[in-house]
Each structure stands twice: as structure tokens, then as C-alpha cells.
């Protein structure tokens, strides 16, 4: 998958994760980074746990879903590490 595809999937997944998790947010660049790292995390987990051969393979629904789930997990981990802010 090309770098542009990773950025587009990361942007979509990061934005969706930010909308679902609600909070202060990370901004556009932060959402892209969260989405890309979430895609890597989601791809790793999908391969390790469910034996999916190539979970993030382009701009399609399954890739966005895997990246989204990885992004949600990543945002939850970041919030645990950062602590709750009121």
C-alpha cells in the first residue's frame, strides 16, 4: 500500500476514532498519526489473533475498519497513559 493510501486510511480511521471516543481530540495531524499507527496496530492484531493474511491492503472498507479498530484501541491506551483530564 502506498504512502498516500496510508495517509488517507489513517485520516479516515483517526477521524472516526476521534468521533467515537469523544474528547479534546488530537487535531488533524494527530488524527492522521493516530490513524496510521492504529492501522499498524489493527493490522498486527488482526494477523496475530485472527490469522488475516493482509488486513490493511488499500483504500477499502475492510482496511478502514481494521485501522479504525486499531485507532480506537490506541486512543484508549493513550488516554490511560495520559490520565483523565476534566
Plain-language structure description:
The mean pLDDT is 85. Helix 1 (3-21) crosses helix 3. It contains 3 helices and no strands. It has 86 residues and is mainly α.
Q: What oligomeric state best describes the polypeptide chains here?
A: single chain
Query: What would the principal axes of the Cα set say about the shape?
Result: globular
Question: What proportion strand?
Answer: under 5%
Count the beta strands: 0
Helix content: over 70%
Number of structural domains: 1
Describe the largest sheet.
none
Q: What is the mean predicted local confidence, pLDDT?
A: 85
Radius of gyration: 12 Å
Number of helices: 3
Question: What's the end-to-end separation, in Å?
Answer: 39 Å
Poorly predicted parts: none
SSE arrangement, N to C: HHH
* Structural category: mainly alpha
Task: Summarize the entry for a quick read.
This protein has helices spanning 3-21, 27-50, 61-82.
Properties at a glance:
86 residues, mainly alpha, 76% helix
List the helices and strands and how they pair.
Layout: H1 3-21, H2 27-50, H3 61-82
Helix pairs in contact: 1-2, 1-3, 2-3
